[in-house]
Amino acid sequence: MAAQPQDVPQTETIRFTLDGQQIGAYADETIWEAARRHGVVIPHLCYKPDQAGLRPDGNCRVCMCEVKGERLLQPSCWRKPTEGMEVSTHSERALHSQKMVLELLEADTTDTAYVADSRLDHWARALGVGKPRFSRREEPQPDFSHPAIAVNLAACIQCTLCVRACREVQGNDVIGYALRGGESHIMFDMDDPMGNSTCVGCGECVAACPTGALSNAGVDPTRQWAWQGQESEVKA
After folding, report:
1. Domain range spanning residue 167?
2. How do residues 143-170 score in pLDDT, each as one tens digit?
3. Are residues 72 and 187 located together in one domain of the fold?
4. What does the alpha-carbon distance between residue 208 and residue 206 come to, in Å, rounded to a whole number?
5. pTM assigned to the model
6. Which ranges constitute the DSSP H helices of the chain?
């Protein structure tokens, strides 16, 4: 019987500086992934590394970092480090961007919470983001037509995690993204009520959603967010 190939341990081939400390990164590893391995947790919403098959997309802009010598901030979940690069995730500019994005996203959602502790709420507390200063959008009506999944797009931040979970992980391709600008929204099939769509109720989208916009049917949506600004342990 032929010998089975063994996994070859990865070697850190890239050295770069992260928040003043020199660390190593694997080939094809992103700044976010290298930072996480070295104990530096960067805010993130449109990337959920603990859910198999969900690639980073770099579209929520919560994980922005500052690269020395570059004019624009970079999404750490998508940008890869290079030899000698100097990266800051806690500079004044990077933190200002992270907090502003979180505040804008909080303003784009409702005060009603659809899960016990959404990832959006968690990061807003962790970075000390209080009640948004911006006016809220008109809230979409809830959709309770599906027997297993409740749809509350008032809480949607359009991170597209549910789209990727449905399309790329499960291969069902039920959830899509419609229109542009202020009219853009998540849709099911041809913008049908979820209960009338071809959704099979696998729950992959619910597991991916960071705000409870898609949640298990029957979850109590009455808990209101308390704007206390208390500190919270940062989760990976």
Report:
1. 137-219
2. 999 999 999 999 999 999 999 999 999 9
3. no
4. 5
5. 0.81
6. 31-37, 92-107, 119-126, 161-164, 204-208
